[in-house]
Prior knowledge:
CATH architecture: 3-Layer(aba) Sandwich
Order of helices and strands: HHEHEHEHEEH
Number of helices: 6
CATH class: Alpha Beta
Number of domains: 1
Strand content: 15-25%
Oligomer: single chain
Amino acid sequence: MKRFFFLVPLIVVLVVIGYFGLGLTRDPKLLPSALIDRPFPQMDLPPLPGYQKGFATADLGGEVALVNIFGSWCVACQVEHPVLMALAKSGEIPIYGIDWKEQDPADGTAWLKRRGDPYRLVGNDQPGRAIIDLGVTGAPETFVVDRAGRIRYKQIGPITADVWELEVKPVVDRLKAE
């Protein structure tokens, strides 16, 4: 029995290495969303200062669309903003925005005026209640919503040109073809 006692630490180390090795094979961006294939949560957000209308769930009806969570405080949002501007300019897909957790809602308005506004409508979620309903873990996050108003895909992190072409656009194209 004493001869095998030295194997116990070795077995423990191998189990720990196996556990961490398995973890390294998984994509950390793939966080499952409980909302996939479910209706977009009901919300009716007020507009940002200087805007006439905010964003409500009812605005999503009838076409495939993106709903993008952003904030003027979000560094990664600056990375994806040129891609959103190009998509808006192309008319390929309507984009709705939710400005999340601004200390002053005017900061979101100023940010969009400086960088350009790719959004059809923008809602102000200063208290962050709508974001909780969406299960957002951080900005930016973008949801692909189908014609029936169901969430079909969730992109965590910025939409770069590669992410758009390789991950999001194929989902959008498939939904448009349905």
